[in-house]
Design goal:
The complex is a heterodimer of chains A (115) and B (444). In chain A, 17% of the residues lie in helices and 24% in strands. With 115 residues, chain A is α+β, with helices and mostly antiparallel strands. Chain A has a single domain, classed as Alpha-Beta Plaits (2-Layer Sandwich), CATH 3.30.70. In chain A, strands 1-2-4-3 form a 4-stranded antiparallel sheet. Chain B is an alpha+beta fold and 444 residues long. Helix content of chain B is 29%, strand content 27%. Chain B contains 10 helices and 18 strands. The chains are: A alpha+beta (115), B alpha+beta (444). Chains A and B meet through strand 1, strand 2, strand 3 and strand 4 of A and helix 8, strand 15, strand 16 and strand 17 of B.
C-alpha cells in the first residue's frame, strides 16, 4: 500500500500514521503501524531515546513510550516539549499539532540519528 | 436491545454548524453534544465577561441555537453543551429567549453552575503538575473553573431538560451522563464509567474521528472532506459502541481514524483521568463493522480521582504578529537579513525586551526548534511574533516590520500585521467535596 518513494530513503510515514495532541507544555504523539507485520520494526526504530536525542532543543524533558500491542501502536509522551506550551510558545504552531510529522519524517534506517 | 444514539454537534468553539444541522435532522439522535471549551477558551470568555457582564459565553451560541433548537425538538434530541463558558446563566437566558422567538413553547433549558471556584482558592494555591503557586504569576487572574463531571449533569436529565447548558463541564462527561442516565449505570460501576468515557473521548473532538485532522494524500486519502460528517455513537447497555456517521456525508470512520483519536491528548493509556473515572484505554478493542462503522469495546475503569482539576486563567496582555515576504533568487538571504534588522531595532532603538521570535516561513518555522530546515526555498515569509503586557510593544513591532518595505532588503512585499489579546492558563486541584454544582431550569 505504501510504496517507498523513488530516490528517497524510506521514512516512518511509509509504514505508519500518527496524531499529535497537547496538554500544557507536554506533547503526545501516537504512532500506528498500517500493517501488523511492521509493528516490531516500529518498536525497534522509534525508541524514546532516539526521539529525545533527535530533537534535543525541542524536547527539554523526559520522553515516555507506551505500547499498544493489540492495536500495533505506540504513544510517546514528551515533557517540556512545546516551547513553553500554548501559553508561552511563540511558535506559529503553539499546540504542536504538527509534531506528528516530526515522527513520520524520521528515516527507517536511522540515518538521521547520526551525530 | 436498547441502543442509545449520541452524536457530536461541535468539537471545539469554532466548529462547523451546517453538518450539525444535518446530523440532528437525519441522525435520529437521543442526544447531541456540543463541546466548545478548551482551557484557553474559558479564559478568553472570562475576558469577554469582564468587558460586558451579559457576555462570556460562546460567540456562536446564538446561531447554533437558532439552527439546532427546532431540529432538536422535532427529533426529540436532548442537547448538552458547555457553550455557557464563563457565563452559563447568560447563555441559558439567551437560549430561553431564542426558544420563545422560535415559538418552541415549553422548551426546558437547564443551567448548570458551580464550576466557578474563584472564591474558594487561596492566592498561594500550588500548581497541579509543576513547581510554584498562583502567587508566582505576575498577571491578573480572570477566572477559575473546576471541571464538572457527569454527576453535575444527571439532575438536569432527571428533570427532563431539553437543552442543558453549563460552563466547564468536562468533555467526556457530557457524553457519559446521558448514557449512564438512560442505561441506569451506577456512578460506582467503574467499567461502565470507563466505557462511557471512551465513547465521549472518541466523540468529543467531533470530526477528528470521522476523517478530520487525518487526511494525508497518498497514504491516508479521505473522500469529500469539505462535507465531512460529524460522528455518531450507537451505544449498547454494556458500554460497547459502534462509531459511525450519517450516510451521504464526507469523511470516513475507519479503525485508523478511531485509533488516532483513542490516544489523542492521552498520556498513560491505562490511566486517563476525568472527574468520573480513571479510565483504562490500554486494552480497548477496535474492529471494522461495515462501511464507515467501527466497533469499540473493552474499555476499563477504576476509582475516580478525589481531586478535580481547575483551570485558572490570567490576562496575558497582547500578541503582535507581522510578516513580509521575499521570493526568487536569494530569497532566504534577504529574509534572514530582514529578521536581523527587526531584532536589532526592537532591542537597540526601542529598548523592548519582550519575548520576540522571527521565523522564515518556507525555510524553518514550525520545526525551527526541532532543527529542520528547507535548503532550497525561493518563496519565503518573515514572520515575527511578540508577546507583551504592553500593547505599545506589539504596535512598535508591527511598525518595524512594515518599515522593511522601504528600509529593508530588496524586493520585500506583502506586509500584514495584527494584534490580538492573550491569555495564560495554569492548572490547580481542588477537593471534589468543595464543589457544589447547581441546577436551574428556565422554561420557554
Amino acid at each position: 500500500m505504501n510504496a517507498p518513494r523513488r530516490n528517497a530513503r524510506r521514512i516512518v510515514r511509509d509504514i505508519a500514521h500518527a496524531r499529535a495532541g497537547d496538554k500544557g507544555n507536554t506533547s503526545n504523539v501516537n504512532v500506528w503501524a498500517y500493517d501488523a507485520a511492521d509493528f516490531d520494526l516500529l518498536k525497534k526504530i522509534l525508541t524514546a531515546e532516539r526521539i529525545k536525542q533527535t530533537f534535543p532543543y525541542l524536547i527539554r524533558g523526559k520522553v515516555e513510550r507506551y505500547e499498544m500491542p493489540e492495536l500495533h501502536g505506540l504513544n510517546f509522551v514528551m515533557h517540556d516539549a512545546l516551547e513553553g506550551g500554548v501559553n508561552a510558545s511563540l511558535n506559529l504552531d503553539s499546540h504542536g499539532k504538527s509534531w506528528s510529522y516530526l515522527f513520520l519524517g524520521l528515516e527507517l534506517d536511522g540515518a538521521d540519528q547520526e551525530s | 436491545m436498547v441502543t442509545f444514539r449520541i452524536g457530536t454537534g461541535a468539537g471545539f468553539s469554532s466548529d462547523r454548524l451546517d453538518p450539525a444541522v444535518d446530523l440532528v435532522e437525519r441522525g435520529k439522535l437521543d442526544a447531541v453534544v456540543l463541546e466548545c471549551l478548551g482551557e484557553r477558551t474559558v479564559a478568553f470568555a472570562h475576558r469577554d465577561r469582564m468587558a460586558d457582564p451579559a457576555r462570556g459565553y460562546n460567540s456562536h451560541l446564538e446561531r447554533r441555537m437558532r439552527a439546532l433548537l427546532p431540529a432538536c425538538r422535532k427529533a426529540g434530541t436532548v442537547m448538552i453543551t458547555n457553550m455557557g463558558a464563563a457565563n452559563p446563566r447568560a447563555a441559558a437566558l439567551r437560549t430561553q429567549a431564542i426558544a420563545r422567538e422560535l415559538d418552541l413553547k415549553g422548551l426546558k433549558v437547564a443551567c448548570i453552575e458551580g464550576d466557578d471556584v474563584s472564591a474558594l482558592l487561596p492566592a498561594n494555591q500550588p500548581f497541579m503538575d509543576e513547581p510554584g503557586t498562583l502567587a508566582d504569576i505576575d498577571m491578573p487572574v480572570v477566572g477559575m473553573n473546576a471541571y464538572l463531571g457527569a454527576e453535575a449533569i444527571t439532575p438536569a436529565l432527571k428533570a427532563g431538560a431539553d437543552v442543558i447548558i453549563g460552563g466547564r463541564l468536562a468533555d467526556p462527561s457530557m457524553f457519559l451522563a446521558p448514557l449512564a442516565h438512560r442505561f441506569g449505570w451506577d456512578a460506582t460501576d467503574m467499567p461502565r464509567m470507563g466505557a462511557g468515557t471512551l465513547v465521549g473521548h472518541l466523540l468529543e473532538c467531533g470530526m477528528q474521528v470521522t476523517g478530520g485532522y487525518f487526511a494525508d494524500p497518498g497514504v491516508k486519502d479521505v473522500s469529500n472532506l469539505a462535507r465531512c460528517g460529524y460522528p455518531i455513537a450507537e451505544v449498547q447497555s454494556d458500554g460497547s459502541a459502534i462509531i459511525t456517521k450519517l450516510g451521504g456525508t464526507g469523511g470516513c470512520v475507519s479503525t485508523q481514524t478511531v485509533k488516532e483519536q483513542l490516544l489523542y491528548e492521552v498520556h498513560d493509556p491505562a490511566r486517563y483521568l476525568t472527574p468520573d473515572v480513571t479510565a483504562d484505554f490500554s486494552r480497548v478493542a477496535i474492529a471494522a463493522a461495515g462501511e464507515d462503522r467501527v466497533k469499540v469495546s473493552n474499555a476499563g475503569g477504576s476509582k475516580r480521582p478525589d481531586m478535580l482539576k481547575v483551570t485558572v486563567g490570567f490576562d496575558g496582555g497582547f500578541q503582535g504578529e507581522a510578516g513580509v515576504s521575499y521570493a526568487g533568487p536569494a530569497a532566504q538571504e534577504r529574509g534572514h537579513l530582514a529578521a536581523e534588522i527587526v531584532v536589532e531595532r526592537m532591542a537597540r532603538v526601542h529598548g523592548v525586551k519582550s519575548d520576540l521570535r522571527a521565523d522564515l516561513i518556507g525555510v524553518s518555522s514550525l520545526f525551527a526548534t526541532a532543527g529542520i530546515h528547507a535548503a532550497d526555498a525561493q518563496d519565503v515569509r518573515l514572520h515575527v511574533t511578540l508577546r507583551s503586557r504592553a500593547k505599545e510593544h506589539a504596535e512598535l513591532m508591527l511598525w518595524e516590520v512594515e518599515s522593511l518595505l522601504c528600509c529593508g532588503p530588496a524586493g520585500g512585499g506583502g506586509y500584514r500585521g495584527a494584534i490580538t489579546p492573550c491569555v495564560m492558563t495554569k492548572s490547580v486541584l481542588i477537593a471534589r467535596e468543595r464543589i457544589e454544582p447547581t441546577l436551574d431550569i428556565l422554561t420557554a
